[in-house]
Amino acid sequence: MNLIETVKDAGIVGAGGAGFPTYVKLSAKAEVFIINAAECEPLIETDKYLMRTFPDEILEAAELVASHLGAVRKVIALKSKYQKEIDALQKAIDRKKSSFELVKMNSFYPAGDEQALVQLVTGRSVPERGLPLDVGAVVNNVGTMLNVFEALEGKSVTDKYLSVVGEVEKPIMLYVPVGTAIQECINQAAPLLEEYDIIVGGL
Fold it and tell me: What pTM, to 2 d.p., does this model score?
């Protein structure tokens, strides 16, 4: 089974928020492949956790995807203040003698926006209503890369890492089945308010 079929059969969609089918993104050739590790919302911790915990797995999948796309430039873009994550990824890059480069961004919102990321990394502006592919780039979230790695190991997307933060007693990282009720996740973090709004970032 080839990469496209593996990704499609595993049910992988963009983990950064849009939920776009990953196999469609990978059915192309691109000059630049960018891993979006910026995690733009200031409180969310999930991508940072994944980078610290699974740097080798993320990089292995990213190398395979970059080769599939024919990318000549390979980038992981993340905020410069993510020092622990930078250290973990750089050690993985060194271990694998990878040609991926780390692009370190200032902390501004929406640093994780796909179009802003492409412009920062390549200097090219994605046209209005366009896609990064229009300027020779493909962007995937760091969580998507972990899902690709697991798909190559024979695992479909049935569970998801997510963080519950904000006005809670214990900010937590969870690994739960897809379809788990949001309220169930919130209850595990022990909200401090009786009434609150819920902001969902990522998918």
Answer: 0.90
